[in-house]
Every structure is written in C-alpha cells, then in structure tokens.
Amino acid sequence: MARHRGNGVANSSASSFQPQNSHDNTNPPSTAHNWEVEKNRSKDFYDDGTMTFFWRAHRILVLFVFSLVLIYVALFEKQNDDVSHNTKRGLFACLMAFSLFGVIVSPDGPFRRPHPALWRFLFCLSIVYELALVFLLFQTAGDARALMKHIDPELGVPLPEKDYGGSCVIYDESNPEDPFHNIWDKMDGFVTVHFFGWWLKTLVLRDYWLCIVISIMFEVLEYTLEHQLPNFSECWWDHWIMDALVCNGLGIYLGMKTLNYLSMKRYHWRGMWNIPTYRGKLTRILKQFTPYVWMDFEWKPISSLGRWFGMLGVISMFLLAELNTFYLKFVLFIPPPHFLCLGRLVLFLFWGSVAMRETFQFMDDPSCGKIGPQSWLIAAIIVTELLVELKFDWDTMTQPLPQHMAVLWVAGLVLLLLWTVWHFYLQRLLWHADQKLESKKNGEKSVSPRPSNLRHRVKHAD
Description:
mainly alpha, 15 helices, disordered N terminus, disordered C terminus, membrane, transmembrane
C-alpha cells in the first residue's frame, strides 16, 4: 500500500484534516486555505476514509432506544415512595437526557479519537457543571454546604487543613532514629499528583517554556497566599526542590519526551474490514484510543502584541483554575481525596485539552474569527468558581497580602508592563527613527521593510 505523507489521503476522503460531520457523513467543501492541513503537512499521515457503523449518524435508533427506556420507567418499573430517592433519580435522568440530546445535536470539536461523540458528551458535562455552579452562586454558604450532604452525607463538615510548613530542618540531629522525618512527613499523595499532573498538563500545553512559567508562578502564588490557606505554607525546599524541581520538573520532562514521540509517530489509519489478520484488527481497536494525528503548538508569544496578551490570558486562566482547586474545596468543605475533587480534576484535564487546542487555533489561524465553545465555557467555569469562593468566604479571600509580597507583585507587574511597551512600541519607534536617519544620510527616498520580529499583527500564521 502506498504511503501518504503530509495531507495525503486516499481518494475516498476529500481531506484528512478537515473536520468531518458525523451526523450527515459529508465533508465540508475545501477552501483555498486549510489551516489544519498546513499545520500537519509534515506529519506521516494516511487515512483510507473508511466510515463504519459507529461513525454514522443514528438519530432514529437513539430516539427509539431512548423512548423504550422512558416507556419502561413510566409503565413497568415498580414505583418508590421515597421522595429523596425519586428526586435524585429524576435529576440524574435529566442530566443523562440533556447529555444525550447534546451528543446528538452539538457540533464536533477538534478531537475525533476515540470518537467525536465522547468529546461532545464531555462538552455537555461542562455545561451541566457551569449550571450547577450558577445554582450554587444563588445559595448561601450554609445552604450550599448542606446541599453537598445530598451527594455524600459525610460532606458539609469543616476540613482540618494540614500545614506543610512547621520545621524546615532537612536533617534533624535531635532525632537520630529518623533524621529525615520532616521530608517523609511532607511526602504524601500530592507528590504523585504533582508528577503525573504535570506530565498530563505538558501534553495539554505542548510547550516547555509555558509549562515552566506556570509551574514557577504557581509556587510564587503559594508563597503569596499562604496566609489565607494553611496548606499553601510549605518549606522552601518543599516549594522549589520537591515541587518545582523534582515532581513538576520530572513531569514536564516526561511530558516533553511524550510530545516528541507523538509528533514523530506515524499515523496510518485503515478500516477494520481492510485489515486481514485478527491481530491487526485487535491492534487497530487499541489504536482507536490514540490520537488521530498530533498537532504541535508553536505559541510564539512575542511575535505580535495580540499573541502576547493572549498568552498572558492563557497563563492567568490556567493559574486561576489551579487556585480554584484549593479554594473551592476549602469553602465547600470537600476533602481532597473525595471523588468530587478528583472528578473535577479529570474533567478539567479533558476540557482543558480541547480549550487549549481551540485557543491555539484562534491565535494562529487567520481565518478563525471567534474563540471555540469549549474555551468560552471553561473560562466561564473558572470565573464562576472564583465568584462562588468570594461569596462563600469573603473574609478569607480578601485578607490583604503581606507587605513584602504586595511589593513583589507590584514590581513584577510594572516590569511586565514596561517590557511590553518597550518591545511592542518603543523598539519599533526607535527602529523607524534609525531608518529615517539612515535614509537621510544615504540620500535614499524609500525605507527598507521592517524586520519580521517587529511587525505588529494581532493574528500570526506560519
């Protein structure tokens, strides 16, 4: 079989990288410029264009099965007089019905593996989560915590916050039996979460320096806010050695190695019936849970003022989402090991993956005029979570910063502003002045084009 590179596809597929509509099984018309094709042109990619049963629309079949389930519940299921039980089942059924409707009618996102329907379902869950946050926002703190008991009777109880500071002596001579007890005491489940979390975050962000900046900035935020949340109070070596260097650093390193593998990997796809051996069919089933093709993110933050502000926005929202993880469980009395906390982290991983892909296309694709739906929704979720935290514990959230941290942040923001003005405005004006002076000296009437790194464009495309 001939191998196709870049945007090569079989004749049965109009364009391998154009998003396919799984509802009507038709490809959108080709355009003069296809950003996705251009970004993936260097990939070793092939798709024979096979459309199996699971990739076709089945709205009538789904409606039939959905109706059968409702008929069974309404006519054949034994009734239960427990109001609480019926209320919970009814709310769960509404959630499933809404998600089913969303999976059927919502458009496909940028990801298609293992199946676009999964990503549509996750998008619907993000809508449900945002609606739940809006509902909580209209409750009092006490009522919201009481509502948590309907999910788990053990919730709604104030949490004991662990202080990771205390004694910061690495080698305690006064304890000869275990002189490193301070280190072992601070090595809990969060060490594993830090490592694997940053491995996965690197796959989401797909940029080494962006990961490093966010990792360091979060440690600075922990220093800044340790007077509000006790578990932000850590020893210096816990911040910079165990967290930033060891756990986060190793996670980012492993993530970058994984990115290199995914970027260079061969992506050849054939339909199940086109594979002759059972072993090949089994391998094809397993590969369904791997990426369809891998796109590299070239953020280029200083290529234009628009991209610079865009990257600052991405970093800010990412850090705010990280902080919400701690503050939300603090104000709602949800212990860290609870399935609600873990479930939120897992969902944010999937939502964030789609949101980053949409954000990158919005910043890089000249033909993309609006931000993607998942990006918009996850930004709304992050803001709503912050508002819930502010409303439920205003006193904690508004405790003033320590003077030395306030001075540090003001100085940092001023330096950031000055550098932005210098790089995107003053440097360009000085270059123009130098060009005019050079033209007068040489008697030239025209000025040579500006260097590409000084072009001021809101959109940038390769």
